[in-house]
Amino acid sequence: MFLLLAPEIGLEIKQYYIFMIPIFNWKNKRVLIVEDEEVNLKFLEAVLRKTEAELLWTDNGVDAIEIVEREKNIDLILMDIRLPIMDGCEATKIIKSRYKSLPVIAQTAYALKGDEESIRKSGCDEYLTKPLDFEELLETMNKYLAD
Fold first, then answer.
1. What are phi and psi of 23, to 5 degrees?
2. What span, in angstroms and rounded, lies between the C-alpha atoms of 97 and 118?
3. How many CA atoms lie within 13 A of 36 on its CB side?
4. Distance in angstroms (rounded) separating the CA atoms of residues 13 and 96
5. Can you tell me whether residue 16 is helix, strand or coil?
6. 64 near 93, Cβ under 8 Å?
7. β 30-34/2-6 pair status
8. Domains, the chain, with CATH or none
9. Rounded CA separation 43/64 (Å)
């Protein structure tokens, strides 16, 4: 077992077989993280730091839509579902109505029976449950970001 310490954000991440996790290089990619919980944002930043992707962040669905409209060159969205102002499903519906090919990966801690189906119906391409397995997260993102 390998224990990754990230004291700057107060996280301990336990992962088995860490040596098998590939390193991804997404240097020219832009990822929008839509997450309202700071500890989850810090986890995502720590996991994604070595990929060299440019990370943008907001904490609600309304701002996510505005960022996608303004920036125009987002390569992938990591979308939390339970958000203030506008939830992730509603934001995804609006984003996908304008940018059908923009990949959206849902990430939620509130995984109830039937949630995955309704989240996918909103337009999310993938569905991950929290706590996130960072190997699964990276592999899922790579499906959309690999050149």
1. -95, 130
2. 16
3. 16
4. 33
5. coil
6. no
7. unpaired
8. 23-145 (3.40.50.2300)
9. 19
Name the token pair of 129: 């449950």
Structure-token match 């592999």, residue found: 139
Closest among 8, 19, 68 to 43, alpha carbons compared: 8
Structure tokens at 130: 């929290």
pLDDT tens digits for range 91-137: 999 999 999 999 999 998 876 777 888 899 999 999 999 889 988 99
pLDDT at residue 114, as a whole number: 74
Q: How many residues does the chain have?
A: 147
Helix (H) or strand (E) holding 82: none
> Which stretches of the chain are assigned E, i.e. beta strand?
2-6, 11-15, 30-34, 54-58, 76-80, 104-108, 126-129
Looking up tokens 């119906």, which residue turns up? 121
**What are the pLDDT digits (tens) for 61-89?**
999 999 999 998 999 999 999 999 999 99
Q: Is the peptide bond before 22 cis (omega within 30 degrees of 0)?
A: no
